[in-house]
Amino acid sequence: MVSQKDKKEILELVNKQVNENLTKKVSLLATLLIILNILGLVTTYGKIKEIVINRIAEQFKEERIRKTLQTVASDKANDIMENILNPQIDGVKEEIISFENYMNNMRLSFSNEYKTLAKEVEILKARNALLLLTDKAITQGDRSAYDKVQNIYRNSKDAEVSSIARAEMLKIKAFYASTNRIKSGDVIFIDEEGRSFKNGNIPTDILLKYLIGHKEVITRAKSADLLRNRKEKDVPETLIESFKNEKNLIVLKNSIQAFERVTGYENSDVFDYEKAIKWWENNRDEYYKKIIPSER
User: Fold this and answer.
1) Domain ranges of the chain
2) Each residue of 13-45: pLDDT tens digit?
3) Phi, psi at 230, each rounded to 5°
4) pTM of the complete model beyond 0.70
């Protein structure tokens, strides 16, 4: 026989098994219900989402909504332009203006530097040209070179170039004022009869011819120098002819000095023959009155 104690233990064991099975089934059922509810919610959400999307799409087709969106978009665009793009654009504009100002300043600076450099180059060229002319005037006695220097001094619009020309002109004058290259030279004349004449013994008319037409510079220069002692009728006029046409500076200088000695004219410049010519125009008659009557 089964004791009461054993019955009790058996019932407790059975109840325990039943309760465990029941609990598992209830849990399973609850889990299934939850899953079904979730699936239902997902399905419902999907349908609702589809309805909402379709409704929104329909709403966007309405003119009122479309205009509203356009207004909002326009306002938003304006807001973006005003708050974001415009400041950036203004910044770029300022940078462009700053760069343009920089370029203009650089251009102006370069232009000024170029003008300065160009002027310096022009002055240097003018100086070199004047130096070459001075060299020709001194070493070769080239009167045309001296005349060019004098012309630049008198007519140049550039004060600096004119100043350089004046310095070179004075250099030429100083050289000839202190130099006589032909002092030791002799002039020889042999007449048709074979008689030889030298320097001071040569007739005046021969010296005048030599002064104007002889091909040798030294002969012309010495003839002019010898004529300073010939206060005769044709001497001043021939000397003036030499002033105008002589191409050598030493001959020109000697002719002017001879004119001073013969006429009494006082020259203040080694090559200034123009004043001598004007003086002669005013004093010619007085000169002729002083010479020997037989030579008028």
Assistant:
1) 82-179, 188-295
2) 656 665 565 566 556 655 655 665 665 655 665
3) -115, 85
4) no
